[in-house]
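debug: dumping io for the single-chain case to check the tokenizer round-trip. Nothing else runs in this session.
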Amino acid sequence: MMPDRSPGLAESARALAAGEVTSRTLVERTLARIEAGRPVLNAFRIVCAEAALAEADAADRELAAGGRRPLLGVPVAVKDDTDVAGEPTAFGCAGDFPPATEDGEAVRRLRAAGAVIVGKTNTCELGQWPFTEGRAFGDTRNPWHPGHTPGGSSGGSAAAVAAGLVPAALGSDGAGSVRIPAAWTRLIGIKPQRGRISTWPRPDPFQGITVNGTLARTVADAALLLDAASGSHARDVHRPPALTVADAVGRDPGRLRVALSLKPPFTAVPARLHPQIRARVTELAGQLAALGHEVTEDDPPYGQIGLAFVPRATAGIAELVAEAPDPALLDPRTRGAARLGRLLGGAPLRAARRAEVALQGRIGAFFRSYDVILAPTTAAPPPRIGALYGLGGAATDRAAIGACPYAWPWNVLGWPGVNVPAGFAGDGLPVGAQLLGPAGGERLLVSLAAQLEAELRWHERWPPDPAG
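debug: decoded output
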């Protein structure tokens, strides 16, 4: 049985500052939950038990001396594409990866806020797919239905937060990899503006489509982690103006013009919206209307935006494969994607990157008529474990695009999006909806998500005990 469920991020920080609990106690309980959940969930690639306990003891000394930082003594997890000093960054791959010599910028900022890093969560190989399974670590499972995937590629972070192993976690999102697992595990998943959270030591990962984001059970916790991790490294390619979002929670967003967009963006593969997801997202639109917002069914002018995505995604895979200590250990689908990336890495890649400005202009014009877009996060509920992992390369691509056609355009644009829970489909499988905004729109999205949360109280329902 699970020892307990993690309190939220803000609640943990409050209890620590009030002297109601010690960081040592919180971290010990977190480590016990991680261990208890390992046989079923398999959420963590690396658990930093010894280092985390030492950090907790240091936090307790600082708290006792009157020190106050936003996350002082609070345990959090990060995805295993993020450097933690002294630990390898395998990014879902098999092989002997060297330990990182220093923290990535996002981890450095979390530590500066006082957070205790308890471990690194599982992700599929190089973050390519909407499932978290691989020969290097096995299967990461959904706490709501362990026979199903939590999604990917930030599936380990999502499973850990949804099950209450940790209060919140970092993920990354290059084609929906924060929002998809958030949808399939009933979490808030914030994909911020490109560059909001530094990706250093990778200044422009996956040719600019990948960003770091946050996963938590409440909007306030996801926003708090976002603010703690946010900020630029001096050598980042993308350095948006500083912005805080946590204080937007509870702020009245005003009466907004909301576009309900149910049509999948153009893909080369047919994608069909599951009727129960359509119903859940439409119900959420009705909730927004009941809150006083003006909701109109309309779709952004995506055009053939996919042509600007594939060269960037596959070129990013090629760059990472070139760094792998033993490429022979990689999934054949990874090696195939890398070959395509090398093929598209010249003129097609340059054209794809040039297209971004025109796409931002065309889709940005849509926001003259609307403030926010509401769209499904996925077209399908979470698949069963193994349903996609066992497929070949082309079949995996078809299945992944068919299940998840809605998230990736916002990676091409670099703009913010927030997954919110939208209820359940089938036999109690969580599904989600995206609130999508223009550049720098995190505060409005967070304010609207929090307004929905105050009405729907989705965070009050827990999944079944993953160990029991």
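debug: round-trip ok. The two ends are 5 Å apart (CA to CA).
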